[in-house]
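Subject: design request, 346 residues
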């Protein structure tokens, strides 16, 4: 089966996905009968390309290496340049839109409009963009159902670590009573380094140097990134749409090295814990620093690693540990969702 893809947003994630498609092309065709034809790429800064017969992905990556954008891609017969994102959705032959633009959880734009337009036109959406999913997943799923297509979003929570698909498949039949986890690798890296003796300021600087944290680390250290993921999990696992203001959120900015070291001496470890819990009053979500005992499965999660513990009425507690970010890992999340489209799976 062939999927004809249009990639919106060609930053780290989009490029990582293309690199995987190039590297795994023969394997994917042989093992899954899957052929991926990238017919279009549109990026606000890097430019756009469209060819109905598919783009040469090697030439795409070479163009980026040459000029940092897509202007150096060779002019071949049938090539169209200059389409914006919405025109790419509307006018190209793509049947599946890869939405990898920047996250905006204030209003979900422009990703939300991209998803709405694609689904309305009967095109699948595969996305790593937390904004549209956190804010409007139920609306988007309804649009997909009406059009007979699908929206998949595994990469929005723990990158290439399959927590959403795990709950829907391997944990099927359970009533999930609650989940709790470490959903932000940057904050976990900082707390790990503070356990090892660094100050918050020095650990944050290290995280920025390593690429874990942005120049403005607000979303990570103040807990907002984990808060968005709680909103997504509420809808994906519990079918409940909760507002951002209903997820109590406290970050790690005020935690001192001395507090972290004191907790460590007493057998505890500071972690930024995101949780969802069924209560008699409905679903309760929160993000907050907690001191976890050593026997807690989340206590030993170090560095930029993420983890999520599911508590099911039949399975008991099941903890999944894996990368929560990364060029290859998030690109893999896109690939896994595309393979699910081809195989007709969740």
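Subject: RE: design request

Done. Sequence follows.
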């Amino acid at each position: 089966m062939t999927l004809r893809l249009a990639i919106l947003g060609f930053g780290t994630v989009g490029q990582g996905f293309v690199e995987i498609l190039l590297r795994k092309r023969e394997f994917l065709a042989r093992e899954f009968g899957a052929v991926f034809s990238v017919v279009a790429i549109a990026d606000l800064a890097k430019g756009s390309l469209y060819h109905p017969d598919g783009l040469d992905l090697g030439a795409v990556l070479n163009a980026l290496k040459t000029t940092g954008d897509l202007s150096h891609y060779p002019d071949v017969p049938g090539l169209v340049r200059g389409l914006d994102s919405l025109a790419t959705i509307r006018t190209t032959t793509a049947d599946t839109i890869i939405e990898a633009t920047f996250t905006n959880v204030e209003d979900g734009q422009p990703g939300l409009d991209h998803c709405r337009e694609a689904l309305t036109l009967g095109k699948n959406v595969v996305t790593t963009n937390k904004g549209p999913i956190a804010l409007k997943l139920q609306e988007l799923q309804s649009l997909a159902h009406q059009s007979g297509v699908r929206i998949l979003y595994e990469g929005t929570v723990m990158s290439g670590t399959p927590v959403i698909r795990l709950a829907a498949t391997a944990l099927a039949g359970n009533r999930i009573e609650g989940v709790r986890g470490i959903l932000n690798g940057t904050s976990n890296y900082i707390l790990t380094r503070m356990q090892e003796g660094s100050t918050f300021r020095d650990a944050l600087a290290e995280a920025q140097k390593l690429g874990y944290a942005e120049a403005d680390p607000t979303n990570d250290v103040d807990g907002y990134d984990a808060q968005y993921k709680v909103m997504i999990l509420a809808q994906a696992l519990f079918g409940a749409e909760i507002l951002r203001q209903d997820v109590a959120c406290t970050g790690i900015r005020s935690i001192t090295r001395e507090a972290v070291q004191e907790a460590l001496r007493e057998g505890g470890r500071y972690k930024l814990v995101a949780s969802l819990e069924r209560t008699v009053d409905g679903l309760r979500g929160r993000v907050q620093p907690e001191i976890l005992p050593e026997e807690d499965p989340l206590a030993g999660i170090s560095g930029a690693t993420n983890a999520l513990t599911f508590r099911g009425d039949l399975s008991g507690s099941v903890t999944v540990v894996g990368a929560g970010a990364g060029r290859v890992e998030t690109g893999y999340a896109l690939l896994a969702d595309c393979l699910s489209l081809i195989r007709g799976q969740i």
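The first helix runs from residue 12 to 32.
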